[in-house]
Amino acid sequence: MKPKTLGAWIIIFLCCLPNWKLEAEAKNNFELQTDNFTCSSEDVNSRIIKEYRCGISKGSKRRTWRMEFMLVQPVADHDFFMKIILPRRRPLTDFVLLNVTTDGCQLLANRNQVPLMRLGRNIMERFSNFPKQCPFEANVTYYIRGFRLDLNLLPAVDMETPVHVELSYRSKQQGLRWISGYLKASVQRISDKKHPK
């Protein structure tokens, strides 16, 4: 999807979504609760990836998610894919908030990206040791650890909803998704007990 097209869809979503609020104070009423995070690889013969692990923290409150991987060989040219879905009850179809594939090297360097992807890359820097330019090196444990999205960094939203996120890294040379992650979470209203008085 071209950046201009993606930007237009995001604007349409923001304008049409019921109960969307622009007031900054609405952000503090909601949090993203992680339910599960798993990962897989199409590289069954370990031509690219040597090992990987994914999961969530054990605490029942304020769970975080993690992804770790080590590569057999350096990976330069690759694509990054992300899809964000807001599931809805049948007979309604799921709402696809974002469905984008972008050049992974440009994403690492945070260049030529749509604003939402650049924001995500900036947030991720606090939780990962990903390089700021290609390639991903071999025999280095790359990680995202303790990640928990702060909704205060995003436009205000006044809704409770499940959220499903799929992300993956795909080698352009070998055509394999060497790692894919699957996040299940939900935007939940913060109870009055959690609000400081």
TrEMBL record:
Source organism, top-level taxon: Eukaryota
Signal sequence extent: 1-26
InterPro entries referenced in this protein's UniProt entry, alphabetically: DUF1091
UniProt keyword terms in alphabetical order: Signal
Protein name: Uncharacterized protein LOC108049323
Provenance organism: Drosophila rhopaloa (Fruit fly)
